[in-house]
Amino acid sequence: MRKRHAERTTGSGRPLRVLLTTDWWEPVVNGVVASVATLRRELIALGCDVRVLTLASGLRTRNEDGVYRIGSVSAGMVYDRARIGMPASKRVLREILRWHPDVIHSHCEFSSHMWARKIARALDVPIVHTYHTIYEDYTHYYSPSRTVGRKVVATFSRRVLDGTDAVVVPTEKVARLLAGYGVTRPQYVIPTGLDLDRFRPARTEAELRDAAELRAGLGIRSDQRVLLSVARLAKEKNLDEVIDLVAGAGREDSVLVLVGDGPYREELVAHAAARGVSDRVVFAGVVDPAEVQRWYRIGDLFVSASLSETQGLTFIEAMACGLPLLCRRDPSLARVVVDGRTGWQYDGAADFAAHLDQMLGDDLLRAAMSHEGVAHVHATFGSRAFGSSVLSVYRSAIERRSPLRVLALEPLAA
Questions:
Q1: Residue 275 is part of a domain; what is its CATH number?
Q2: Are residues 251 and 372 in the same domain?
Q3: Based on the domain organization, do 288 and 322 belong to the same domain?
Q4: How far apart are CA 187 and CA 167, in angstroms?
Q5: pLDDT on residue 1
Q6: Which of 400, 386, 393, 385 is nearest to 16 (CA)?
Q7: Residue 358 has pLDDT above 60, yes or no
Q8: H-type alpha helices, 5-144
Q9: Is residue 272 assigned to a domain?
Q10: What is the pLDDT of residue 149?
Q11: Is 342 helix (H, G, I), strand (E, B) or coil?
Q12: 27 preceded by cis ω (within 30°)?
């Protein structure tokens, strides 16, 4: 592991102990898992002692390599692949209490958050929470009325976050949303960082050959342009609109490749057939999270119509891999898509088609946007700055709770 800052220690000379809690963990692929995994890696590199408390895929509770997996049951009737934790194992809780984390960082609002609060109360340590999901964009799962659903979300979010010491949000859009809900806890806008050693354009002959082989394996000709989307195939991702836009743009030389799977796949297959573009919409399915960068490299552009993003982590991953972006306009993308430089945000079908023609018709422009996008990611979304920024939040939370204790944590200020 690369050497970075001096070890982050407490007054006793031991590393700062951080417990990360999340309902989602590997091998599940989503933005929460990517963010927590990146944070864990960066905190460890900064010298912290980090453990994870999450849900097991079954009833058996276990601890492997600092990851506690609490037994759980399926909640797939509510949300695909979601799970509900069983009463936490007393043995695991005793072990965590003996370990005595200095700060708890919660990343989900349900099962694991309840355990986070219980542990924080027992040890009188601060709890930081990252608000990853804009739940009002998911009202179709639990409420027939968006207005009622938003009120439910506002009340729920306020009650969860009022019990925390600090809230981390990935964008100003989410900060404004929470302020509108009446959340008063201190908020910190910190975009999730990216492992830029992994997410990068193809550099070697082997990587270029690999991308060509992946395209060929999907039945894509070498003269076709690939419009790529990496997303869970769920209603809130608005992939129906992407298919409509591709169909309406009339670019017969382009193929839409959807990487991912989910409960809305059958509807999307039927929608592509109804629009007469089944031959130009390819469903690649789920890919290994450790290999997803290979799939970004098959694309010429990254496209999305989603309005449910808190940050758009897949957009940033795509840009880091050299893909210009063509995405529906959304405040969450303000720091991601720099219009005319890293891609475009479109405002309607005609706007989408015009930008698509411009980008696919000018290889030099697309290459310049690719280069600009990679540079923008390196300047704005590096994982090292992400880890350091979150560490500063921990220090502030500890200081507010116990001003005397922070004197024993001065290395955190470095």
A1: 3.40.50.2000
A2: yes
A3: yes
A4: 5
A5: 43
A6: 393
A7: yes
A8: 31-45, 90-99, 111-123
A9: yes
A10: 76
A11: coil
A12: yes
CA dist 364 and 274 (Å) reads 35
Q: How many domains does the chain have?
A: 2
Cα-based distances in Å from 39 to 49, 51, 84, 214: 12, 11, 24, 30
Does residue 142 sit in the same domain as residue 265? Answer: no
Q: Six-digit token pair at 318? A: 């795509």
Give the C-alpha separation, 52 to 259, whole Å: 28
261 and 165 within one domain:
no
SS3 149: helix
Residue 230 scores a pLDDT above 50? yes
* Residues 259 and 117 grouped into a single domain: no
- Does residue 87 surpass a pLDDT of 90? no
* pTM metric for this prediction: 0.77
- Residue 115 structural domain: 17-193+382-413
How would you class 121 by CB atoms within 10 Å of its CB: exposed for 0-12, middle for 13-18, buried for 19 or more? exposed
Residue 342 and residue 350: Cα distance in Å, rounded?
A: 20
Convert the pLDDT of each residue in 47-62 to its tens digit: 999 999 999 887 888 8
Question: Is 4 contained in some domain?
Answer: no
Cβ contact 178:131 at 8 Å: yes
Residue 189: φ, ψ to 5°: -90, 110
* Structural tokens at position 143: 């409420």
Q: Is 410 exposed, middle or buried (0-12, 13-18, 19+ CB in 10 A)?
A: exposed
In this structure, the answer to whether residues 152 and 36 fall within a common structural domain is yes
Residue 344 neighbours by CB under 8 Å, 6+ apart: 325, 326, 327, 337, 355, 359
| Spatial CA neighbour of 85 closest among 51, 111, 118 | 111
